[in-house]
Design brief:
64 residues; mainly alpha; 5 helices; globular
């Protein structure tokens, strides 16, 4: 995915945690960050992947 989409290491880590079914609470603990920061990171990733606003990023990643 990184080679195809040009995503950062942090975005790649987000994808891995989602793929491994980490809960949002667990993701926040791994990154030691706020909920708002994780939401912004996921929204930036969604834009890079050129996904529609209505697409669930977590579901997209799990199916990819």
């Amino acid at each position: 995915m990184k080679e195809k989409r040009g995503i950062t290491r942090h975005e790649q880590e987000i994808c891995c945690l989602v793929k491994w079914n980490f809960s949002r609470k667990e993701q926040l603990a791994v990154f030691n960050n706020t909920s708002e920061a994780l939401t912004k990171s996921k929204n930036r990733l969604k834009k890079k992947l050129r996904l529609d606003e209505k697409v669930d990023l977590d579901q997209f990643i799990r199916l990819y």
